[in-house]
Every structure is written in structure tokens, then in C-alpha cells.
Specification:
Four Helix Bundle (Hemerythrin (Met), subunit A); about 0% strand; CDP-OH_P_trans; transmembrane helix; phosphotransferase activity, for other substituted phosphate groups; transmembrane; CDP-alcohol phosphatidyltransferase family protein; globular
């Protein structure tokens, strides 16, 4: 199914000069992976604590901005590993675990906004973890790691960024908080359905290629 992940090759081509520059300066794939995770954790904590005590303002722009930068980091660490012989067993653990930790923290920090249904947000975060675990399980039956959509990591980054943009911009045009809540929670509900479909697709396609 269509997914933003399919744009990855073109995105990587844009980043290749930067990757080569980083390699020449001794930067490793594992360093990039861990750096991105710690920045994600720091930003998540900041946004959660800040918006528990402050109204919505332009600081929230950091969320979609970082999501875009983080996609670049995710591409860079993989390119450093593959193209400059930096692949390792430890790096594989770093890559998968740090993504799950960072993603979960970034999603859950939005619980600071009271009009977002906490249980729904936590359900989406759980399904996101489950979808990644499903993709990682494919090698256990001799298949490649699955990245099937329609709600892969890049897609989730887009939709969560859209939610934060709506939270920031919507009050400028409409002060109806109930309507904003309906829209944001509606997006989360749609994400939940598409995550369930993603899990199904990853299992189905893993079994199909295994047979």
C-alpha cells in the first residue's frame, strides 16, 4: 500500500553529500542513531512539561521541525552503516530500539494537551510499537525486515506533525476547542485503524514471501 516510506530513495540521494561529509569527519552511524534518540527524548520532556503550564505558542513548531530533521537522521545513520561498512550487530539493536523509544516519547508527550484523549493516544502509541515489532519479526521466518504501510514510521511522523500544526494554528481562526478536539482525535482514530492494517499487511506479506 502507498506510504511516505516509498520516497526514501529520493530523500537519500539528497542527503548523500552530507553523509559523505560526516564520514570524512569520523562520524559513525551509531553516534547519529543515539544522538537523534537523545534529542527526541529531550524535546519530548520539554514539550510535555512546558505545555502542562503554558498555553499553545510557537514553541510547538519544534515538533514538526524535529520530525523532519529526524527523518534525515534516520536516513543518514542507515547510509553510513551500509555505504561505509559500519554495519554491526550492536548497531542493529541501536537502530530498532532507539526508534521505538524516541517515537513513543514524541507521541506520548502530546498527552499534555487535555483535549487529546489520553487512552486513544496511548493506544496509537502501542499499535505503533506493535507495527514495528511485527516488521522486525519477519527475519525470524527468513524474510527481510518489513516496512509495509499504510502507516509506517514516516507516515506517523507526518500525521503527528499535522496534529501539532493544527493545535498551533487552529485557535487563530476558530476558538472552538471541542471542534479542535474532534479533529485531532479523529486523526488519531484514523491512525489507529491504519496501524492495525499496517500490522496485518506486514504479517501477510512476510508469510506470502516465506511460502
Amino acid at each position: 500500500m502507498p506510504s511516505i516510506y516509498q520516497l526514501k530513495p529520493a530523500f537519500q540521494n539528497l542527503l548523500r553529500p552530507l553523509v559523505q561529509w560526516l564520514f570524512k569527519r569520523g562520524v559513525t552511524a551509531n553516534q547519529v542513531t543515539l544522538f537523534a534518540m537523545f534529542i527526541s527524548l529531550g524535546l519530548s520532556i520539554f514539550l510535555y512539561v512546558y505545555y502542562l503550564n503554558h498555553p499553545v505558542n510557537w514553541w510547538l513548531l519544534l515538533f514538526p521541525l524535529w520530525m523532519l530533521i529526524r527523518m534525515a537522521f534516520n536516513a543518514i545513520d542507515g547510509m553510513l552503516a551500509r555505504e561505509f561498512n559500519q554495519q554491526s550487530n550492536l548497531g542493529a539493536f541501536y537502530n530498532e530500539l532507539s526508534d521505538v523509544v524516541a517515537d513513543t516519547a514524541l507521541y506520548v508527550c502530546l498527552i499534555a494537551f487535555g483535549f487529546i484523549h489520553a487512552k486513544l493516544l496511548l493506544l496509537v502509541a502501542f499499535l505503533a510499537i506493535l507495527s514495528e515489532y511485527t516488521g522486525v519479526m519477519a527475519p525470524l521466518i527468513g524474510q527481510q525486515r518489513r516496512y509495509d504501510g499504510p502507516m509506517g514510521k514516516s507516515d506517523r511522523a507526518f500525521w503527528f506533525s499535522l496534529i501539532t500544526m493544527l493545535i498551533m494554528v487552529f485557535p487563530l481562526f476558530n476558538t472552538n476547542l471541542q471542534l479542535l478536539s474532534l479533529i485531532c482525535n479523529g486523526i488519531l482514530s484514523l491512525m489507529g485503524v491504519l496501524l492495525a492494517l499496517t500490522i496485518y499487511n506486514r504479517i501477510k506479506n512476510s508469510l506470502k514471501t516465506a511460502s
